[in-house]
Amino acid sequence: MTDPRPGQRLLGKVALVTGAGAGIGQGCALLFAEQGATVVGCDIDTDAAARTRELAAERGTKVEVMAPLDMTVPADAQRYADSVFERYGRIDVLVTAGAIAPHMASAAEMDFDEQWTPTLRGEVDVVFLPVRAAWPHLAASGGGSIVNFASVNAFRGSGTFGMVAHCAGKSAVLGLTRQLAVEGGPSGIRANTISPGMVRTPATESAGAHEGAARAALLARIPLGRVGTPEDIAWCAVYLASDESAWVTGGNFPVDGGVLAK
Ligand SMILES: NC(=O)c1ccc[n+]([C@@H]2O[C@H](COP(=O)([O-])OP(=O)(O)OC[C@H]3O[C@@H](n4cnc5c(N)ncnc54)[C@H](O)[C@@H]3O)[C@@H](O)[C@H]2O)c1
């Protein structure tokens, strides 16, 4: 167990963060670097990757972001994990924050090829593939921590948006993470989910969640009375990535302003 100084809770850790170019992944990558980790992110979007590198430099830290890499493509996921392991000799943490903004439609109206299938690929394959690629490297490093993202929508439907594919995808992430915890235990690989409530990110902005009636309906459901920030979520990820959570696996952590309590 490391003995981190205040502000250095991830000292000595090598962390992969998918989707580091924006939103929650960017928030995790920046905070992890501030907490002493060596962070190598990836993103499908080259410009977004460059923005995160710049933001880290502005904060006086360093975040590498490999791009373009598509975590729904097995060879890209493999290249990502293998190249980090080759360069740094270990992988301690994998945060899978890369995901598409889900297609929204009611069950009756959802197109199978254009909406359902891409949502499941972009929410479930995008988790499984980097996990599979990083797994032997985590084991070879003596164990490590996987942090996946489910959602409050793994637990409840939405009266505002048509979320049938999204609810299915996020429930799948919960289930697969529990299984990872069981399979990883003997190798010291821990796996947990964070279930964020509504966080202001490019994904939720593009869905129109922060405007008009949708915004009012969402705020009315949040006991703490505001939407979340990527940093609100990243603090939980710091805990799960650190040795502070050494005996925590197979868990789900709602970080949602109290939505699931209501
Ligand atoms: N924002 C929320 O309110 C919220 C709520 C619950 C759960 N979540 C979950 O948190 C995670 C992050 O969400 P976000 O809101 O930050 O999303 P976002 O769209 O703002 O950012 C996602 C990042 O991932 C990248 N990405 C997308 N597909 C990729 C791929 N195939 N390979 C590599 N990179 C890829 C994007 O380019 C982007 O930079 C997702 O799993 C999301 O479902 C978010």
Keywords summarizing the entry:
262 residues; Rossmann fold; seven-stranded parallel beta sheet; alpha/beta; binds nicotinamide-adenine-dinucleotide; single chain
Give an account of the 3D structure.
The chain has 262 residues and is of the alpha/beta class. It has a single domain, classed as Rossmann fold. It has helices at 23-34, 46-58, 74-88, 112-140, 164-184, 202-206, 212-220, 230-241; strands spanning 14-18, 38-42, 63-66, 93-96, 144-149, 189-196, 252-255. Helix 4 packs parallel to helix 5 (164-184). The model has no long low-confidence stretch (mean pLDDT 95). Bound molecules: nicotinamide-adenine-dinucleotide. Nicotinamide-adenine-dinucleotide (NAD) is lined by residues 18-19, 21-25, 42-45, 48, 69-72, 97-101, 122, 126, 149, 151, 196, 198-199, 201-204.
What CATH first level would be assigned?
Alpha Beta
Q: Largest sheet, order of strands side by side?
A: 3-2-1-4-5-6-7
Give the strand content. Answer: 5-15%
Number of helices: 8
The largest pleated sheet is described as: 7 strands, parallel
CATH superfamily: NAD(P)-binding Rossmann-like Domain
CATH architecture: 3-Layer(aba) Sandwich
User: How many individual β-strands?
Assistant: 7
- Globally, the shape reads globular
Overall pLDDT: 95
